[in-house]
Specification:
Helix content is 43%, strand content 15%. By secondary structure, it is of the alpha/beta class. The structure holds zinc ion (2 copies).
Length: 486
């Protein structure tokens, strides 16, 4: 992405040229008064400098001289601010404001496109710029345009010449095409969308879209309506992922606990899928579900999507919590509660040696109501009895809340994300961070208001106080910084 100022680029190129060539070059450049035409000149010039000429014996192409700036392939028109720095009283041309960013699809930027899109032959020649000018592209924030270069295929040209003249009439079979523009749908017809070189817009028969917008459409599912897509663009959670992620991690960093409940939920994570282009299906690669770690204050101290149910992923998550306790100089948690206690015990005790791992007591609660037990539940009950024998029901901290019903409550929130938003993995992660952030802030604010809280929560209370309960962590931080400078 480069802001392209024609006069500046001309100046730079002239400096690099031999004085005898400057007049000719300036005349050629100035002949193209339009912004886009200057870009075409510029790219053409760079291409000539770096390509291997047809009858040259060299195989290694020459490199771009250090005096020539490399701009593109996406060119942004200069803004008023650029003009005002170049001239004291800028000559404002309103038409400049209507210029769209220009995407150049040219062999200078994408070297390995030299293949006939129709017959696959490599006996092809880069011919010239398209003679129909730029085409329009739909973009996320603004409409854009694209300009392409033509590829001429020699075998196809021969076939076209051999074809009887009548065949090219409008009501006969189609004439063989032998010239292909890089901004046409035919050129990209045989490419899968993931094969496209990064940054190239996606061209279809009706219109083109920028790569950014295309990625967003894929993420939001192609079946979504255009209205729904527009709503997702406006909603900050999909666009400002970076802000959400960092806000999430800033708060999470001060969350610590004495007793943790560890849990997996699978239903919601089934949403975080990858679309398979060929079979039009969705693949769920997060088979391990959502792993959450809830402390005794009901805050989600950490969560992640897991690819499997292997303990390695749990260990990674616990390592983060461990580091946090070390950095804040807070005693390590005493007890972990899980409904697969015997499966995760080793992983937990590897990170937190000496921690007590016990069974989620929610099953005990159910056992009191005889009627919830079905045939399948009887098997579960037998399994639970095994845990009882191993002492998994023993509690080292009876004073702190650690029952599984709170976890079941958090499942409700996770599942509501799944129901209300169309999303792929990326957006799901953002939504998950957003959910966790808001939930934790609510808990942190209520702890702040209650005066009787243990010392290890002081960091969290300080954090909640500093951002005044707002979940716009970054905004609150910026405001506080500004306030401090006053
Ligand atoms: Zn061909
Ligand atoms: Zn057990």
């Amino acid at each position: 992405m480069s802001v392209f100022e024609p006069e500046v680029v001309l100046e730079i190129i002239l400096n690099s040229l031999h004085p005898s060539k400057r007049t000719v070059f300036t005349a050629k450049w100035r002949a193209s008064l339009e912004w886009e035409a200057s870009i075409v000149e510029y790219v053409g010039y760079m291409y000539d400098l770096t390509k291997v000429h047809g009858n040259s014996k060299k195989t290694v192409p020459p490199t771009l001289p250090p005096g020539i700036p490399y701009y593109g392939p996406r060119f942004i028109p200069p803004t008023y601010s650029h003009l005002s720095k170049r001239e004291n009283s800028p000559r404002i041309k309103p038409e400049l404001a209507y210029l769209r960013p220009l995407n150049v699809v040219h062999p200078f930027y994408y070297g390995d496109l030299k293949k006939c899109p129709q017959c696959g032959s490599i006996d092809v020649l880069w011919d010239s710029w398209t003679n129909t000018g730029h085409c329009r592209l739909h973009g996320i924030r603004t409409e854009e345009s694209a300009i392409g270069y033509q590829l001429r295929c020699k075998p196809c040209e021969k076939r076209a010449l051999a074809q009887p003249a009548v065949a090219s009439g409008p009501d006969n079979s189609k004439a063989v095409q032998h010239c292909f523009v890089t901004t046409s749908a035919i050129f990209w017809d045989k490419w899968e969308h993931w094969e496209l070189p990064r940054g190239i817009p996606v061209f279809t028969h009706r219109c083109g879209v920028t790569r950014e917008l295309f990625d967003l459409i894929i993420e939001m599912r192609p079946s979504m309506t255009s209205g729904g897509l527009a709503e997702n663009i406006r909603r900050p959670s999909s666009m400002n992922r970076a802000i959400i992620h960092s806000s999430y991690s800033e708060l999470t960093w001060v969350l610590t606990g004495r007793v943790y409940s560890i849990d997996n939920t699978f239903k919601a994570s089934a949403k975080a899928t990858i679309v398979d282009g060929k079979n039009q299906g969705c693949t769920n690669i997060m088979k391990g579900g959502i792993l959450t770690c809830i402390d005794e204050n009901n805050c989600i101290d950490s969560w992640r999507l897991c690819q499997s149910q292997a303990n390695a992923e749990l260990e990674e998550l616990l390592r983060g919590i461990y580091n946090r306790h070390v950095s804040l100089d807070i005693p390590m948690p005493d007890m972990f509660v899980a409904d697969n206690c015997c499966h995760v015990r080793n992983a937990i005790q590897k990170i937190f040696p000496g921690a007590h791992v016990c069974l989620d007591a929610v099953y005990e609660k159910w056992a009191k109501h005889g009627d919830v037990w079905s045939r399948a539940a009887a098997k579960v009950h037998a399994d639970q009895l095994e845990h009882v024998k191993k002492g998994c029901l023993e509690r080292t901290r009876e004073d702190l809340a650690c029952d599984g019903s709170r976890i079941e409550g958090s499942h409700k929130s996770w599942n509501s994300i799944m129901r209300s938003y169309a999303s792929g993995i990326e957006v799901f992660t953002s939504l998950g961070h957003d959910l966790t952030l808001r939930r934790n802030l609510r808990m942190a604010a209520s702890i702040l208001l209650s005066n009787t809280s243990p010392a290890h929560l002081n960091h969290m209370k300080a954090f909640a106080a500093s951002i005044l309960g707002s979940h716009h962590v970054r905004l609150a931080n910026a405001t506080a910084k500004l306030w401090n400078t006053l």
